[in-house]
Amino acid sequence: MKTFPLVLAALCSAAQASDITVDIFGVGSYTTPGSLYSPELDFHSQTLDWRPFGLTYFDARIRGSFTVVTPGVDTLDLYWAGSPLNFRQGSNFYIDGTQYLFWESDGAKTRADVSLVAGSHTFELDYTPPVAETNIGSDVISLPTGKNGVAIIDEDHSWGPTSSVPESSWLCWLVPAGLLLLRRKQ
User: Fold this and answer.
1) Rounded to whole angstroms, how far apart are CA atoms 144 and 134?
2) Please, are residues 43 and 149 in contact by the beta-carbon 8 Å criterion?
3) Residue 173 burial by CB count (10 A; 0-12/13-18/19+): exposed, middle or buried?
4) Rounded CA gap, 152 and 13, in Å?
5) Full-prediction pTM beyond 0.90?
6) Checking phi first, is residue 119 left (phi over 0); if not, alpha (psi -120 to 50) or beta?
7) How high is the pLDDT of residue 179?
8) Lowest-pLDDT range of 39-43, 98-102, 103-107
9) Which of 110-114, 125-129, 175-179 has the lowest mean pLDDT?
10) Domain boundaries of the chain, sorted by first residue
11) Which CATH number does 17-159 carry?
12) Rounded distance between C-alpha atoms, residue 111 and residue 98, angstroms
């Protein structure tokens, strides 16, 4: 009976989302919950008020992992709600080291169809908030816009389980109750 807690922990942890690590260069890191079956993430893309550690300008590396259960093609979008006119911003998105999406001053690819095989995959998003050219007297300099936010949107959610059965995390509540009933009969 001592193996039961280990089996229950394994069952319950299998249904948990993986963490996303956010590294803010020169300042520190933090983690936030991510999706188990997708690299989808959103850091204030609608409100543009992302201020990690109170910063208005920073460089970030956002990384995590996800599991492809159903291999195939999924459509991902790189989203930033600010106007790209007169702004320069850098965002580069990778899965397993291959670049799929980017938004840089010299071009953008903000939508991609990504084909992956079943298994565990890593992702990484390098992010630099936008700057705008600003006239200061007779000089033109680039200053942060203060509009910080980015998202990777999973349009299809096709890499998860194909079954219509709810996530198995609800089973974690039934197993102890069933064992108590079974134990009571003995």
Assistant:
1) 10
2) yes
3) exposed
4) 25
5) no
6) left
7) 56
8) 103-107
9) 175-179
10) 17-159
11) 2.60.120
12) 15
- Token pair recorded at residue 147: 């509009």
Residue given tokens 């096709």 in the structure block = 158
Tens digits of per-residue pLDDT, 158-170?
999 986 444 555 4
pLDDT digits (tens, 9 = 90+) for 13-42: 444 568 999 999 999 999 999 999 999 999
- pLDDT of the residue at 3: 47
Q: How many residues does the chain have?
A: 186
* Pairing of β 72-79 and β 28-33: unpaired
Q: Residues 6 or more apart from 56 whose CB is under 8 A from it? A: 129, 144, 146, 148
